[in-house]
Amino acid sequence: MWGRxxxxxxxxxxxxxxxxLPPPPTPPHKGEGSRxxxxxxxxxxxxxxxxxxxDGIRHRRSAITNHDATDGRGVAARPVYIVDGxxxxxxxxxxxxxxxxxxxxxxxxxxPLLLRQPxxxxxxxxxxxxxxxxxxxxxxxxxxxxxxxxxxxxxxxFTVQINCGSGMQSIETAYQYIREGHADLILAGGAEALSxxxxxxxxxAVDWYAR
Length: 211
Description:
alpha/beta; Peroxisomal Thiolase, Chain A, domain 1; 2 domains; 5-stranded mixed beta sheet; 3-stranded antiparallel beta sheet
């Protein structure tokens, strides 16, 4: 629900929440190559793709994306929606270092977002935050941000760390949790404060300084 709050980088991200089912989509057309059909309410229904096997026979493979889809275990997938988003301003590179930590940015981004919602901040099932440069005083930024946002001591929260994909992975994980029925409402996004990141040297530089 909050966006990626970063210094000197792009901002993106949002949370996911289950909503009432949209109108059923129209059946997709069959044809060559790959095609996506839009059903009622502009909800993608299915993508028909073809692949040629060694036997020369064309085999059809469908990637179902509508609310009637099931996962590999045959479990019905629930619809998932992004209901709101927010982000902080980001600064230019090569300026003075910013004073804020990743949690500072996440809280500054998340607080006005939560105030816009018709439900309380402790109504979420969990918090997922992407962050690469985790500080020593903020070893689980998601948990600290959740506490500072007043989401309650019992709020589960964990941090995702996969470099530049951390924020988007947190949203993807939230989507999967909701789609599979493990949660209904998740606050997800990412925060990064490169001004607080340690300066690392390559091996040649380390050897030069060690002379």
